[in-house]
Model the fold of this input.
Amino acid sequence: MRIFSRFFHSRSGNFALIMAICAPVLFGMGGLATDYALLFNKRSDLQNLADAAALASAKELSIANMGDTEIEAVADEFVSANSVQPVDDGINKMTVSTEINNTRNGVKIKLSYEWKPFFAQLFDPGVTPIVVSASAELAGQGLSCVVGLMPPQKYAKSSIHLENKAILSADNCAVYANTDDPWAIRLDGTASLTAQSICSGGGVLKFGKPTVSPDPITDCPLIADPLASRTAPSFGACDETNYVASVNETIHPGVYCGGLTITNGARVDLAPGVYVISGGKLKVDDGATLQGTKIGFFLTGDDSLIDFAPNSTIDISAPETGPLAGLLFYEDRNVSYSFDFNPLFIRFSVPKDVRLHRIKSNNARNLLGTIYLSRSILLIDSNAPVADASAYTAIVTGRLWLQAGPILTLNADYSNTKVPVPGGLLGTTPRLVN
Done:
């Protein structure tokens, strides 16, 4: 009895005893505080992601037959590429739900995120999953079929430049020079530019006797890259290296490291899918043919350039679905590039860091889809019609440059094809709504 009495009346070790009793409570409170801090941060990150995904998905809504499945794929790709939280690591898992409204001018993105708190789920089952949503709608209409993005340089001022006898005909769509320089659009010789509307962030410069119709609108507000939210496709290791097709054959989607060359008069049929051209040119020599439907090219790495010779034949259409839906060419935004060049000398010597794509083909009448080359110059230097047989062709590039005598026809018959127009080109502005 004395032992028990001394134990109960002893003051020795009280602090340790109290801490032993209170530690689990304090530990649990600390864990709960950590959980709710994590909950707040994760919810904020997810709401920002849902907002951005809704805006990106809304851009893809179009009257050009972009289906629900394609919109859902855009949302999934965007979330996967931009989430700061693990999308699916065996512990945490993200679910994306996409709902398109009945009038097809709005989209709702719902994110449900399963995560593993320390203790909070024992007291509040509602802490997981975290559910957020965002809705975006489109306003406006009309198709932009040319957007020149290059800012003015020391020597090269124009983001759209037509020389000699070049003709750019875009009667049912808009041409936009996104450059705030007096030379934003330049027309030389007897060049001709016609469009539904012509908008210059700066001015229009004319040398010789060119024609332009209608009168351009000058000092237009500058815009962001209309396809900036479009997610690049994912890809793996090389399937082919320095591939050269010199006989008639069918080739298949994959990663073509070192480029892809069609030569010796070969006719190459492309099976549908995505072709990654990495670290080398997509080159079609004189006498050779490149043809295929539902195909898209992703250009990545140094020297991943288009080079179509004068006597080549090009007949290609963009995918109707998938990561490159509507995109015939998509240039990686992470490539090294520069627009610092002198137009007087570039035809003789291209600076190493300047990306110059050349379409010299006199038989490239079907280029159905969108050509997206935001880090480059697109030089069309043929003496024949280009793209005139396409239901629609749209071009977003750093600099569109027409030399010699090409007749570049950009149709806007997008209702007559299943190849969708990327929503950013439809003259629409997505906005978040309640």
Remarks:
- The chain has a mean pLDDT of 86.
